[in-house]
Amino acid sequence: MAKTGRRNTRVALAVGVVALSLAAAPTFGSSTAPVHFGKPVVVDNQLAGGEPSVYWDPIHQNYIYSSHEGTTHTLRDGLGSPTGDVGVASNYRNQVNIWTSRDGVKWVRTDLSGSGFEASPNNNTGFSDPDLTQDDGGRVYNTGIDLVNDALFSSPDGGKTWDKGTLNCHDGDRPWLAAGPKDTVWLANDPNTGVHTVWQSTDAGMSCGTTGITDDGGYGKLFYDKVKGSKLYGALIEPVPSVKGGGIGVGILRNALGAYKSGSGKFVQYKAADTQGELTHFPSIELDTAGNIYLTWTDYPGGTGGNGKNTVWLTMSKDGIHWTPRYPISHPGTTVLWPWVVAGTPGNASVVWWQYDRPTPNPDSATTGNVSLMAANIYGLGTSHVRKSIVNAGRSPIHVGGICQGGTTCVATGQDRRLGDYFTNWIDSKGCVIIASGDTMYTDPVTHGDKAWSTPIFIRQDGGPSLTGRSCGTSSSHGAVFGVPGGTGTTLRGLLAQRGPVALLALVLFAAAAVGRGLRRGTLATA
Q1: Strand, coil or helix: what is 140?
Q2: What percent of the chain has pLDDT over 70?
Q3: What's the pLDDT score for residue 22?
Q4: Helix (H) or strand (E) segment spanning residue 519
Q5: CA–CA separation, 298 vs 309, rounded Å?
Q6: Please, are residues 302 and 326 in contact by the beta-carbon 8 Å criterion?
Q7: CA pair distance 127, 137, nearest whole angstrom
Q8: Is there a contact between 239 and 218 (Cβ–Cβ < 8 Å)?
Q9: Nearest Cα to 324, choosing from 362, 257, 250, 273?
C-alpha cells in the first residue's frame, strides 16, 4: 500500500511538473525530424504566376492561390514562345488569377459558370496585385488593379465563388488587405493623388468609405490584431520601409474600428531596427497567435555599388515599440532579396526569400546567376533557445539571371519582370509552411524555349516541426491530435496558447496521459 501511495504521489507530481515546465518553455515543436519541403507542384501550366498570394482557409478547409494575370510581368518585350503566349492570351479576363485546392496537389481555376471569369466583371476588374485575407465571419477577400482602379471583392465559400465586391474601392496602386470583424476589411494603397492611405469597407467589400486614414511612408502587407488580451488588440499594423529619423519600422493605428467610426484616428510610426538600405519592394510583417509582430527585410549595403553580400533580418515585438535585437536569418555571402514572413505560436516563424548563388549587387542588370527559393523555420525567437533550420525549398533554381526591380517600367526597358515584385508564404491547419512563387524555369512545351511569363508553383512543408508545435510528417506517431470541445483538435503545446478551464483541463489530462505512457514503458524516473 505504501508503494502504491508513493507511486501515485509521484505520478501526480510528474503531471504538475510536466504541465508547468511546458507552460514556461517556448514552443519548439514536438518533432525532431529535420524541416523538409515536398516537390514543388505546378498550379497551372498555362496561366501566369507572378506576385502570388497563398492562403489556407481554416473554415472551408481548402487552399486558395491567387496571382498576377501576367500583363506587365513579361520576359523582355513580352514576346515569348507561342504556346505560353496563347495560353495566357486565350484565358485573359482582366482579373487576377484564382485557384482553389483541397489537397495542395490538384488545383482548380475559379470559374463563373464556364465564362472563364472568376467573378462578375461588374465587381472584379484588375489584372495585378492580388492579396488574400479572411474576416471573422469566414469571408475571404482579394484585390486587383488596372493601374486606375483598385477592385475589392469577397468569397463566402473559400474562394470557389466571389459574389460581392466593388470595381473601385479607391484609385491608386499597390493595394494590400487586412480583414477584421465580420464583413469588415481594410485596403491600403498609394492613391493617384496624396499619400499612402488605408480605406475601410464594412459591407463585405461592396463599397469603401470615401475618407481614409493616411500613413505617409507605409508600404506593404498590413494586419489587424484580433488577439484579445494582446498589447495591440484592435489595431491595424503595417510595415514602414523608412521611418522618420532613419531605420525600418511599423505604422500602428490603435482601435481601428473606433478610429474609422469617429474619423479622428492617426497612424503612429515606430522604429524597429537600423538597416543599411533594403533590397526588397516591401518589408514583410505578420502576427503570431498571441499578437506579437514579426518584421523581416533584406539590407542592401552600398546599394548597386556594394559587394552584393547582404543579409536577411528578422525582429519581433509585443507592442510595436520595443523590439528584440535584429536576428540574422541568413548571410550566405551572396545576394538575398524579397523576404516574406508568416508566424505561428509565440517565437515561431517562417521566412522565405530568393537567393542568388553569387554576389549580384544589381539584380536589374544581371544576366547570370541561379536564383533559389530558400526557407527558414525559426523556433523560440525572443528567448535564449532560438533554433533555426534553413532549407532550399524549391530544390532546384526557380530563375536564372536578372530580376527587374523597376515595376511596370521593366516592360519599357526590356528587362525580365516575370517574377513580379514579391512572393508569399502562409501556414496550413497544422502550422506547416506553404509557399507560393513564380518559377521561370519551366519551358514552353512546343518550342522548349523560355515562357513569356512565370509558372505558378506551390510548395508545402512535409517534414519537421510546424510553427504551432505539431509535426509536418505523415506518420501518425508525430503530431498526435488531442480533441478539445469546440475545436478541430490540437497538440499539447497548442493548448498552451489557449485559455480557460476547458483548455487547462485538457492540458492536465494530456500531461497525465503522457506520464501514464512513460510509466507503462518504464521510461519515467521514480526516484
Answers
A1: strand
A2: 80
A3: 36
A4: helix 501-521
A5: 11
A6: no
A7: 27
A8: yes
A9: 273
CA 46 to CA 76: how far, in whole Å?
19
Measured CA to CA, the distance from residue 306 to residue 276 in angstroms comes to 11
Is the predicted pLDDT of residue 512 greater than 70, yes or no? no
Q: What is the DSSP letter of 305?
A: G
3-class secondary structure, 243: coil
> Which is more confident, 508 or 339?
339
For the ranges 82-91, 136-145, 314-323, the lowest mean pLDDT is seen at: 82-91
* Residue 500 reports pLDDT greater than 50: no
pLDDT tens digits, 104-115: 999 999 998 888
Cα separation, 216 vs 210, in Å, equals 18
Using CA atoms in the order 120, 126, 128, 134, what is the torsion angle rounded to 10 degrees?
-50
Any long-range contacts for 89-92 (C-beta under 8 Å, 24+ apart)?
91/46, 91/47, 91/116
pLDDT of the residue at 412: 75
Cβ-based neighbours of 326, under 8 Å, separated by 6 or more: 273, 274, 313, 314, 315
Q: Return the C-alpha cell found at 359.
A: 554576389
Secondary structure (3-state) at 437: strand
For residue 367, is it left (φ>0), alpha (ψ between -120 and 50) or beta?
A: alpha
Beta-bridged to residue 125, according to DSSP, are none
Are residues 312 and 339 in contact, defined by beta-carbon separation less than 8 angstroms? yes
Judge contact between 417 and 404, C-beta under 8 A. Answer: yes
**What per-residue confidence (pLDDT) applies to 74?**
64
Spacing of C-alpha 8 from chain mean position? 47
Q: Classify each residue of 287-312 as buried b or exposed e, where b means 16 or more C-beta atoms within 10 Å of its C-beta.
A: bbbebbbbbbbbbbbeeeebebbbbb
Length of the chain: 527
